[in-house]
């Protein structure tokens, strides 16, 4: 922050200092952002109910394995926090494997007593059973609505439903709902997440009509989680979306699942969306995840990414009796969620609100302020020597231009955050590096700049579309890549590096410089590519992250506390002691990663705002603690060496 005292302690005109305008503008921008954040923060405070669900088939399997009834087992699971069941639509393969009250075979394999139309091809799929089977009362209307070409034949006490497609064609198609699961949920008052599957030859209108019929009979269906590679009825999803909107039934959107059509369906039913997290067997097996890791993944999904439906499955990596482990893990998951202030029940969807004009004004003001501050650092004409009046005009004019641009060209709003984040991280880095006499004060100033920019980003993009990831933030990579480049260009232009850019380009490169530049560039690109991509994170780092998660509840980002902030303090030390003049630029560029990563944290709009603040603060103090230890150790070593060299 600019000093308020002149020489001899006389007060100085505060507004005559260009830095003062930056601080005033950012303080005002933060206030505007705070007002614009109110709907988001209010919604996050209300969204504290998490629903734990399991598959009905897993419930039956565990009950059979343990020798208890599903009813008794459910009572035990419910007491430990389980609140819902997923019930699937059986495919042809599921019917073939049993578990349904009717039989499913090709026409050629039917007993002679079962009536079929004459001349029926032998490969035609047929559902058949005793005519007095109660399941027909649900299955026949459902199938007739879904497949108008279905032919019904009866005689001799038998009833057959002949499908308008061959048996092999329907093996992977969704045919019949699991009535056992739906009836169990009805008897026990259990909310159901129904999983319809795509069916060959059934278009969107038929999917919606049959599903609506099922919802009429089973009001326990509280959400839809499409199964299969393609959403049922795709590409004609309007009828299904209209049905869900009419019944106020949300879509459960599974994280990290690239199902064809699900994003289009979610957009059509928005805001009737419930994020869901689950772990499939393949991922658990390939990563050899422990039971503790599975539970922690579930907790983090709810706590860090605002996921409100958790599909919890038995741990199949162990052979033998699974129920004791499942009960233990369920209790651990429930206790962990309750310890973080969550209630176990059935979650609600986010309310709907729009972007506040105050959020637009705050983000526009912050972008203008950071652009002017960096323009002055880079010596843009008219900024270096501008008086207080001109700075006010520049800020006001820049704010109006940015705000009008966002209003006139809405797509420009997608990129405003990227430039705001990049410029804010650059200015925060340079402001912190300027404080060689007070490095920790410089780190605090940098933190303030980051928090002001982060609040503006969180407010500007803090709407349900972005929180549910229907709209993507387009500036993540820009926020990570641009600050190191701008810091380097600034240092070369202002001769903080021993040579300017022209001098470096005019002489042959040094091998050490090439190696250092390659390492820095590779590290920055790797971090940018790896951002939000856990597949590129090694197993040892995942274990370290989990340890920090348990220790601090909110893990600081590696780029901040292990790289950025230590580099900041070491860069200041190297400058004060005139160490490594040709290579200390690596430390200055490395310092930018701390502030770039901190700003980037606010761009994770699915994370609660309060949690993001805590994550940034944890990265700040942990990084300064580590960097401060290195700083003091080096200072002590330098002092001892200097004392030993003294006569």
From TrEMBL:
InterPro entries assigned: DUF5693
Keywords noted in UniProt: Membrane, Transmembrane, Transmembrane helix
TM region(s), chain numbering: 20-38, 358-379, 391-409, 442-462, 468-489, 510-529, 586-607, 613-634
UniProt cross-references to Pfam families, sorted A to Z: DUF5693
Entry keyword annotation includes Transmembrane helix: yes
Entry protein name: Uncharacterized protein
């Amino acid at each position: 922050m600019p000093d308020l005292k002149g020489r001899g302690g006389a007060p100085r005109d505060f507004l005559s200092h260009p830095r003062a305008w930056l601080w005033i503008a950012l303080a005002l921008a933060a206030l505007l952002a705070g007002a614009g954040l109110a709907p988001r923060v209010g919604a996050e405070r209300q969204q504290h109910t998490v629903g734990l669900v399991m598959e009905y088939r897993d419930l039956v399997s565990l009950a059979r394995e343990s020798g208890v009834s599903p009813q008794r087992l459910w009572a035990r699971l419910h007491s430990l926090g389980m609140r819902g069941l997923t019930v699937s639509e059986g495919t042809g393969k599921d019917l073939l494997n049993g578990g349904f009250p009717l039989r499913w075979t090709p026409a050629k394999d039917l007993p002679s007593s079962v009536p079929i139309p004459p001349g029926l091809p032998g490969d035609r799929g047929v559902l058949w059973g005793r005519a007095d089977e109660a399941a027909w009362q649900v299955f026949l209307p459902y199938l007739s609505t879904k497949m108008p070409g279905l032919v019904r034949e009866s005689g001799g006490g038998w009833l057959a439903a002949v499908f308008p497609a061959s048996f092999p064609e329907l093996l992977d198609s969704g045919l019949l709902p699991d009535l056992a699961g739906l009836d169990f949920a009805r008897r026990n008052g259990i909310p159901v997440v129904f999983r319809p599957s795509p069916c060959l030859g059934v278009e969107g209108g038929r999917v919606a009509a049959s599903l609506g019929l099922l919802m009429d009979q089973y009001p326990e269906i509280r959400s839809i989680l499409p199964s299969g590679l393609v959403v049922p009825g795709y590409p004609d999803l309007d009828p299904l979306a209209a049905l869900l909107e009419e019944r106020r039934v949300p879509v459960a959107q599974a994280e990290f699942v690239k199902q064809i059509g699900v994003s289009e369906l979610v957009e059509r039913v928005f805001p009737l969306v419930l994020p869901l997290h689950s772990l499939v067997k393949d991922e658990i097996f390939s990563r050899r995840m422990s039971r503790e890791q599975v539970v922690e993944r579930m907790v983090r999904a709810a706590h860090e990414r605002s996921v409100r439906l958790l599909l919890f499955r038995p741990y199949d990596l162990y052979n033998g009796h699974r129920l004791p482990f499942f009960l233990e893990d369920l209790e651990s998951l429930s206790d962990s969620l309750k310890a973080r202030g969550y209630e176990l029940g059935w979650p609600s969807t986010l309310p709907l609100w729009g972007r506040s004009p105050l959020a637009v004004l705050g983000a526009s003001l912050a972008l203008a302020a950071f652009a002017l501050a960096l323009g002055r650092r880079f010596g843009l004409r008219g900024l270096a020597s501008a008086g207080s009046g001109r700075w006010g005009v520049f800020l006001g004019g820049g704010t109006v231009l940015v705000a009008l641009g966002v209003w006139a060209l809405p797509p420009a709003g997608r990129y405003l955050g990227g430039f705001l984040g990049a410029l804010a991280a650059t200015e925060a880095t340079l402001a912190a590096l300027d404080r060689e006499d007070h490095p920790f004060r410089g780190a605090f100033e940098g933190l303030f700049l980051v928090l002001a920019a982060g609040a503006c980003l969180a407010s500007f993009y803090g709407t349900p579309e972005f929180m549910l990831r229907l709209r993507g933030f387009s500036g993540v990579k820009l926020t990570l890549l641009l600050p190191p480049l701008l810091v380097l260009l600034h240092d070369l232009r202002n001769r903080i590096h021993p040579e300017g850019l022209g001098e470096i380009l005019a002489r042959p490169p040094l091998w050490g410089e090439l190696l250092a530049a390659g390492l820095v560039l590779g590290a920055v690109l790797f971090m940018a590519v790896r951002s939000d991509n856990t597949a590129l994170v090694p197993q040892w780092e995942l274990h370290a992250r989990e340890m920090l998660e348990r220790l601090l509840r909110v893990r600081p980002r590696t780029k901040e506390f292990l790289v950025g902030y230590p580099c900041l303090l070491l860069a200041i030390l190297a400058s004060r002691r005139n160490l490594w003049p040709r290579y200390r630029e690596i430390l200055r560029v490395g310092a930018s990663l701390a502030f770039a990563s901190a700003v980037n944290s606010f761009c994770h709009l699915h994370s609660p705002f309060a949690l993001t603040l805590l994550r940034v603060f944890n990265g700040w103090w942990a990084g300064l603690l580590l960097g401060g230890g290195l700083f003091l150790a080096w200072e002590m070593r330098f002092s001892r060496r200097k004392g030993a060299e003294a006569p």
